[in-house]
Amino acid sequence: MTLELSLNQQPAHARQGSSIGQPLTRRDGFLKVTGGARYAADNHPPGMLYAVLAVSSIARGRVAALDTEAAKAHKGVVEVMTPKNRPALAIDPDAKDNPFMFRLDLLQNDQVRYPNQSIAVVIAETLEAATEGAALLSPRYEALPARVGLDGAKSFVPRGVGIGGPAVQHKGDVETGLRSAKTRIEATYETPAQYHNAMEPHAIVVAWDGDRLSIDTPSQGLAMAQGRIAGLFGIAPENIHIRSPFLGGGFGSKGMISGPQVLGILAARLVGRPVKLVLRREQMYGPVGHRAPTRQTLRMGMDGEGRLTAIDHHARTASSTFDDFFEPAADASHTLYASPAIATSHDAVRLDTGTPLFMRAPGEATGSIALESAIDEAAHACGMDPLEFRLRNYAEVEPMTGKPFSSKALRECYRQAAETFGWASRPLQPRLMRDADGFLTGWGMGTATFPALMFQAEARAVLRSDGSGLMETGAQDMGQGAWTAFAQIAADGLGLDIDRVEFRAGSSDLPNAGIAGGSGHTATAGMAIHNAGAAVIARLADLATGNEASPLFGAGNEGVLARGGRLYRRDDESRGESYAEILMRAGLTEIEAHGKGAPDPASQETYAKHAHGAVFAEVKVDPDFGQIRVTRLVGAFAAGRVINPRLVRSQYYGGMIWGISFALHEEAITDRRSGRIQNANLAEYHVPVNADVPSVEALLVHEDDPYVNALGIKGVGEIGITGTAGAIANAVWHATGVRPRRFPIRIEDLL
Ligand code: MOS
């Protein structure tokens, strides 16, 4: 385990000086491509049994009968867990003390609230026996009609959206703004339900030892998972050890511990043996969250110069019948375009689905599709180029709050991306460009944005008398490169070359690194690492500057520099000594210190903090058959300090490719009679493959931000998905003259 939890490959590009900013390859890359990286489901503790979920095939009603006898009679089946024999929990899984505490389906009764809800767990000596046992349960249901679709049920205004922001907000009077406008547009856009579909399904391997728990499971937030499990089982969080060194993707679905993961823990309790439970692909379409569908109406007014006089953005969305996550789509209109009047509002319906949850850029992804499409329509209505229109309405301060931006290099993003793309030669009118093969060609653009969030994190730094260093924090790497970026920050914080730094993460017995979500992990845990490094260097400097035998004697803590494993005098860099010499003279084998990362409350009050970007898209459309191909994407993003350009670019690519998916591929289709999802598999739930992904370019625009945090990091995990789908839709219009109003864009919409 130690090997997996502390990755110490010598990076090829490591060099003297700053590690931050180097395009290092992933420290965990070698383990991953050689199969050496052990994911949760790869673990097999001795005596382990296999647990398989039986899930509901109805959307609403109750389970009237389960043939548990037939299942138990099957060879190899050890036990069947149902509401009748499920071990007791310390709290009701339907209890909700805070907005982050989502209600779980843990066999509390016979009710069915959505398709694919767990109704029993079969535990057996083999995976095959457990799977067959689950099939033998042959459930009988009393079904009620499923509530599906955004029109089907009575709508209401939720108390909050996302994790609780006001559902209705306004600045100025949009009706007055619209009345005074010379030009107006109004348009409605629909976005579909999407499911996270991480490559690695949710999985857990769990062993009880008395009241202690040993768990391998993918988690984007180890301490939160630990706390939730502790609450459910009434045990101390420190009695729960969760290892999550590698995640095969998360996208938000592994932010909170899900019901099936807790069912694995319950199953292990019931049988008194270690248990492994892995979701099948179709079982992920329900209990682990999804992106809710939206229908958004935008109204905009413009004066004679193309300046916005009003933006009204209304979003209808959906939640489950039993919990309260609402996709904050309309809030996308708070940030990007200056307007004297802005109104955003949400209403919602309750459907018989699993509770929607955070999914990569929740709110911003869906909202920016509608907003960027509407902005394109508004520009055309004013007879203006879409880039010129956006610059005319450029927000010099955050439109909704009037706060100055901590930094905003969006003009530079527009300029660099437009120039690289060749935007200047774009004809204003649609349907004017054809390529040599006769395909209609169109160019479109969208603006990208995502808030620069920070949460709370801690780290522990150690310097050792052999000249090496250790940095520990329970960070989570979903594939984004946390193992590498944090080691780079640690190396600089400790004043060591990166090959002298051991970095430990991915385990709940390390300091709490907060959540890998909200694009805030690098900033938050990175600041904890940076501060822990600074604190341990300060202790080391105290040892040296206070000792007459040291060449640093009398320099004072401020008077020394740490670099390459040595402390130097700031006023005379020829005078210094190594960490090892300082520690050995003091008779110490190591010294340690802790650091925290958190948002700065003062600058939080003063500044609006967002990353920005611009995405330009080229599409080609078959004039006869309406088939759409994205042929080129160019994005430019400004998100503060870049810790590792290779990893950051890769995050932008991932987001932009998801934008292609949003525009042209992804949609979970619900059967209107049964309420079941018809395409709950990767064959029919379309995501882009290599053939769908053309040339994608991501430009990193320089941006210094002195306010977001001392390292100047804003976060890059989610911004790439914003802006891109709108840019593609706008390119489709430019190619065809037809406005896409529902996503994914279908061939029949263009005919
Ligand atoms: Mo993300 S949806 O913040 O994991």
Brief digest:
By secondary structure, the protein is an alpha+beta fold.
Written description of the protein model:
By secondary structure, this protein is of the alpha+beta class. It folds into three domains: 2-37 and 455-598, Aldehyde Oxidoreductase, domain 4, CATH 3.30.365.10; 41-144 and 202-278, Aldehyde oxidase/xanthine dehydrogenase, molybdopterin binding domain (Aldehyde Oxidoreductase, domain 4, 2-Layer Sandwich), CATH 3.30.365.10; 294-453 and 605-750, Aldehyde Oxidoreductase, domain 4. Helices cover 24% and strands 24% of the residues. It has 17 helices and 29 strands. The chain has a seven-stranded mixed sheet, with helices on both faces. Strands 9-17-16-15-10 form a five-stranded mixed sheet. It has a five-stranded mixed sheet with strand order 18-19-27-28-29, with helices on both faces. α11 (482-494) links the parallel β21 (469-472) and β22 (501-504). α8 packs across α9 (386-392). The termini are far apart. The model is unreliable at 1-15 (pLDDT under 50). It binds dioxothiomolybdenum(VI) ion. The site of dioxothiomolybdenum(VI) ion has 11 residues, from loops.
